[in-house]
Design brief:
Blueprint: E1 4-8, H1 13-26, E2 31-35, H2 41-45, E3 49-51, H3 57-67, E4 69-74, H4 80-85, H5 87-106, E5 112-114, E6 117-118, H6 142-161, E7 164-166, E8 168-170, E9 172-174, H7 187-197, E10 200-203, E11 211-215, H8 216-228, E12 240-241, E13 245-247, H9 249-257, E14 264-267, H10 272-277, H11 286-291, H12 300-316
Parallel strand pairs: 1-2, 1-4, 2-3, 4-5, 5-7, 6-8, 8-12, 9-11, 10-14
Antiparallel strand pairs: 11-13
Helix pairs in contact: 1-8, 5-6, 7-9, 7-12
C-alpha cells in the first residue's frame, strides 16, 4: 500500500491551495483532505475527504492508519484577528492540534510533519526592518504566542525524539481562490475583491502600514521546496523566516489604480492596526534562500494583475 499525505485544515486559505498542488503532483488518491466540516466543495469533490476534529488524537490516528498516511500538513488554526476575540479557543485549537501531530510522529505512526508558523511570532521589541532569523520574540497576540510556543515544541521534538517537523514563518498571504480567514493581513485580499465588486474599499489598516506579504503561488512553492529538501541541508528546526515583498495599503491601492484608475480607498484603522504595528515591515530570509534555494517570483504589480484578472473571471462564472 503506497504511503499517502494528509492535509488537516484542507478547506482553509493555504490548506486548499496545498491540497490542489499536492494532488496535481502525486495524484488525487494519494492526498487525503480533511477539515472540521465540508466548507470547500471543490476540495471535497476532487479526492478523498474526511471530517476530522484535529483536537482529537484518535480521530487523526484512525485516518492515518486507514489511508497509510506518512506525511501530515497541519494547516488548521485560529488566526490573529479571530484569535483576539476568542483567546482560550485559539490557544486550545492551535496547541492541541500541534501536540497531536507531533506525538503521532514521535510514536512513529507518521514520518514527516509540516506545521506553519507566522510573522506573528515577532513583537514590538523585535527589529522591524530586515528581521533576522534569530531575534527577540515577544508576540502580543494569542495567535503569535501559540506560534512562538509551537516553534519551541517543534525544535524540542526534533532534538529529543528525532521528529522530522518542518515549518515556515509565513508572511501575509494573498490568494484569489479563497476568502480571508480572520488574519490581520486580510486587507490585502479584500482590497482586490472590493476593487472588482464596488470600485472602492475601506481599509482597516492605515495607509503607510508596511508588512511582509507573499502571493499564494510563492507560498505553496516555498512549502513544497522545504518539504522536498534533504534533511541534512536544513539548519532550522523551529521555523524558517520566509519573505517575498513588503508593501503598504497605499502602495497596493496605487498598483490597482494602474488597472482600475477610478478605484478609491478610505482608511479606518481598527483593533488590527495595533497588531500590524507590532509586526516587522521586512524579513531576512537568507537562511531559507541558502539552505534550500528559496526564491520568490511575484512582485506587487504581478500580484495585482493576477488577482484582478482571476477575480474578474470568477465574477463572470
Amino acid at each position: 500500500m503506497t504511503s499517502k499525505t494528509l492535509i488537516i485544515g484542507a478547506c482553509g486559505q493555504i490548506g486548499s491551495e496545498l491540497t490542489r498542488a499536492l494532488r496535481e503532483i502525486h495524484g488525487k488518491d494519494q492526498v487525503i483532505a480533511s477539515d472540521i466540516k465540508e466548507s470547500n466543495p471543490e476540495i471535497v469533490a476532487s479526492g478523498p475527504f474526511e471530517i476530522i476534529d484535529a483536537k482529537d488524537y484518535e480521530e487523526i490516528k484512525h485516518c492515518v492508519e486507514k489511508y497509510n498516511v506518512k506525511t501530515i500538513y497541519l494547516m488548521a488554526a485560529l488566526l490573529s484577528a479571530t484569535g483576539e476575540k476568542y483567546p482560550e479557543k485559539a490557544w486550545d485549537l492551535n496547541m492541541t492540534t500541534l501536540f497531536n501531530v507531533l506525538n503521532l510522529a514521535k510514536n512513529k505512526v507518521i514520518e514527516t510533519v509540516f506545521w506553519p508558523s507566522s510573522i506573528a511570532v515577532f513583537g514590538p521589541s523585535t527589529p522591524k526592518s530586515n528581521t533576522p532569523q534569530h531575534t527577540i520574540m515577544e508576540p502580543t497576540t494569542v495567535y503569535g504566542i501559540t506560534k512562538q510556543v509551537g516553534e519551541r515544541w517543534c525544535e524540542y521534538y526534533h532534538k529529543n525524539y528525532g521528529v522530522d517537523v518542518r515549518s515556515l514563518r509565513y508572511p501575509g498571504i494573498i490568494s484569489w481562490r479563497t476568502k480571508p480567514g480572520g488574519g490581520t493581513t486580510d486587507y490585502a485580499v479584500e482590497i482586490y475583491h472590493k476593487a472588482i465588486e464596488a470600485g472602492s474599499y475601506t481599509c482597516f489598516l492605515s495607509e503607510n502600514t508596511s508588512l511582509p506579504m507573499m502571493y499564494m503561488d510563492d507560498a505553496v512553492q516555498a512549502t513544497l521546496q522545504l518539504m522536498n529538501a534533504n534533511s541534512a541541508d536544513l539548519s532550522i528546526w523551529s521555523s524558517y523566516n520566509l519573505a517575498a515583498i513588503s508593501f503598504t495599503p497605499a502602495e497596493i491601492a496605487d498598483s490597482i489604480k494602474k488597472i482600475i484608475p477610478d478605484f478609491k480607498v478610505e482608511y479606518a484603522p481598527d483593533f488590527r492596526q495595533n497588531i500590524a504595528d507590532s509586526w516587522p515591515n521586512s524579513i531576512d530570509d537568507s537562511l531559507a534562500r541558502t539552505d534550500w534555494n528559496w526564491s520568490h517570483t511575484f512582485n506587487l504589480d504581478a500580484i495585482t494583475q493576477e488577482m484582478l484578472q482571476k477575480l474578474d473571471k470568477k465574477a463572470l462564472i
